[in-house]
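Propose amino acids for all 78 sites.
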């Protein structure tokens, strides 16, 4: 008689396990979606910055020859 009660417990445990897997996959989907949207937004910001010329200005400002134009500074920073 004790075996019949255990079968019900096993079925209930399986149902709980299935619900846990479903919840885990939902959380994983949400995390992956958030990361994908962040990467997509960053790419769109880069495209916009390149189109406005802000990216080119940033590159020119970061170039070593902009400092003073001295040849030895360029060589030292290279």
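Proposal:
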């Amino acid at each position: 008689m004790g075996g019949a009660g255990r079968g019900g417990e096993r079925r209930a445990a399986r149902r709980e396990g299935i619900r846990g897997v479903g919840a885990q996959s939902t959380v994983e989907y949400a995390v992956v979606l958030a990361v994908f949207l962040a990467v997509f937004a960053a790419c769109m910001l880069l495209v916009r910055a390149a189109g406005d010329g802000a990216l080119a200005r940033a590159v020119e400002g970061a170039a070593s020859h902009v400092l003073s134009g001295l040849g030895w500074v360029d060589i030292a920073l290279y």
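Residues 2-77 form one domain. The first helix runs from residue 2 to 52.
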